[in-house]
Write a structure and sequence with these properties.
The chain is an alpha/beta fold. About 40% of the residues lie in helices and about 15% in strands. The protein has five helices and six strands. The protein has a six-stranded mixed β-sheet with strand order 3-2-1-4-5-6, with helices on both faces. Helix 3 runs antiparallel to helix 4. The longest helix is centred in the C-terminal third of the chain and has 18 residues. The chain is globular, with a radius of gyration of 15 Å. Pfam families: DUF188 (PF02639). Belongs to the UPF0178 family. InterPro entries: UPF0178 (IPR003791). It comes from Sulfurimonas xiamenensis.
Length: about 150
């Protein structure tokens, strides 16, 4: 059975009940890893791990724990790249499934945008997270779990 790892520091509140229902329904062992206390619900299936403060401390911990076939939920593209390299899976908060086939493209675009911002160019950030994004996440999570958990 797969395990779920949640990059908790930026996990949107709208997604918490969606994920919680799936965890409970499918009895999925889940780890929420963050720099500060985060909760998505009380369950014996969910472990909350608080790591030291630092830019990538939660990411390092997730990469250390995740194994082949596990699912990582994160909006952090470099983290997604690292777990995909370990043959785990990654879904972002807006429902994008990162794969071996697309992660390098997402990483290259992220790095390009970072260089543009570093040069002083003002760029638009991502659009605000909304219910449509939550719906897309729910659909992708259901599709993923249907495929890998035989529901």
């Amino acid at each position: 059975m797969i395990r779920i790892f949640v990059d908790g520091d930026a996990f949107p509140n709208l997604l918490k009940p969606i994920l919680f229902r799936s965890i409970e329904r499918l009895k999925l062992e889940t780890f929420v890893i963050s720099n500060k206390p985060i909760t998505i619900g009380k369950s014996k299936l969910i472990s909350y791990i608080i790591v030291e403060q630092g830019a990538d401390e939660a990411d390092h911990h997730i990469v250390e724990l995740a194994k082949e076939g596990d699912l990582v939920i994160t909006a952090d593209i470099p983290l997604a790249d690292r777990v995909i390299t370990k043959a785990a899976h990654a879904i972002d908060h807006r429902g994008e499934l990162y794969t071996v086939d697309n992660i390098k493209q997402y990483l290259a675009m992220r790095n390009l945008m970072e260089k543009i911002r570093e040069s002083g160019e003002i760029t638009k950030g991502p659009k605000p997270f909304d219910k449509k994004d939550a719906h897309q996440f729910a659909n992708q999570l259901h599709k993923f779990l249907s495929k890998y958990c035989k529901i």
